[in-house]
Amino acid sequence: YSFCTLLNSINKMTTAEERKATSEDYYFDPNARFSAHETLIKDRVRQQAYSGSIWFNKDQFKGKTVLIVGCGLGLLAMQAAKEGGAKVVIGLDTSKIVEKAREVAEENNLGDVCTFVQGDLTDGKTDLPIGDGAVDIIICEWVGHLLVNDSIIKQLIAARDRYLNKNDGTIIPNSASLHLTSCADRQYKQRSLNYWDNVYGFRMLPMKKLVLECPIVSAVSPHQIISTTATLITLDAMTMTEDDVNFTVPYRVSSTSNHSEIHYFIMHVTLYFKKTGWEGFTMYTSPSNTVTNYQQTCFALQEDLPVNKHDMIEGEVTFKYVNQFRLSLFFFFFFFVSFS
User: Fold this and answer.
1) Is pLDDT above 70 for 13?
2) 141: which residues sit within 8 A by CB, 6+ positions away?
3) How far from 27 is each of 22, 31, 69, CA to CA, in Å?
4) At how many degrees (to 10) do helices 97-107 and 75-82 cross?
């Protein structure tokens, strides 16, 4: 099988535009990379929650108009059409991945039901091929690792306000919560800091400050959790606004361990797929649950915090969405300890 034959086969499978694409195209459109969607599809916990909301609520989908905001490769769009029995399914994405979604739908004989649109509903230039208020169900993965750190929230709000049926329209998932707890992991923290003492013979001590300032997305062992959990905020997809992504909220957790130290604050989310008359689902992403693509977000404390059992850690956390950066958040922790 010669290289020329292989190259000719590849050319037949790709469009002229795809053959001209460079790494720059994928850098500025990261969602066009198949790997971004492969990771999500292979997350079984996530996929079962979204797919289950369709499969176990077929009566709610049958004959309805469904909009998938952030459709990716179109898997949920095809499931809404084939398994849910939706009459019209529209997939929307800002990325060129919709071109592949269109091909996949055609390959599965669903091209007559599923329509895919590339565009941004917030730019004032994108219109969907349906009337205002004509959508019965919106499916959108609007929840980020820190609940609000995903720019698709703006897309969802724009789609909801214009296209969702105002009387009995539904959004899946309909709400989500952000939680805070704490963990002890001295070994990992020290290893992260000490690495910069000698990097191939060079000292990079200024990096230690960044290590402590930048959150880490990681899977935390439930055995490392040493406090109760506080719910910081819950957002309702039907009523939330863009202003809701900026908030300051109090928290209060109690230490569950004696003679220990808190090294990290941990945040995780819970997604709710619930509505009256529907078969509901809840997707948990805490350390005590099966690891998902969300994992947990870890915030290192500048100084280790000694605690004993029943000590109260109280304070507040501030999140501020930085608009000029697509997914940037400013966050600030304040806390004090009430010793038992």
Assistant:
1) no
2) 40, 50, 70, 152
3) 9, 9, 22
4) 30
Q: Give CA–CA dist 153/235, Å, rounded.
A: 11
Contact between 281 and 274 (Cβ < 8 Å): yes
Q: How far apart are CA 264 and CA 266, in angstroms?
A: 6
Residue 104 has what pLDDT?
A: 94
Position 116 scores a pLDDT of 97
Largest Cα span, the chain: 75
The per-residue DSSP string of 54-123 comes to HHTTHHHHTT-EEEEET-TTSHHHHHHHHTS--SEEEEEESSTHHHHHHHHHHHTT-TTTEEEEE--TTT
Q: Are 77 and 97 in contact (CB under 8 A)?
A: no
pTM: 0.86
Terminal CA-to-CA distance of the chain, rounded, Å? 74
Highest mean pLDDT among 46-50, 159-163, 332-336: 159-163
pLDDT bin (cut points 50, 70, 90) of residue 103 is very high
Please work out, in degrees rounded to the nearest 5, the angle formed at the alpha carbon of residue 54 by the alpha carbons of 53 and 56. Answer: 70
What are the respective helix, strand and coil percentages of the chain, to the nearest 5? 30, 35, 35
On average, the pLDDT of the chain sits at 87
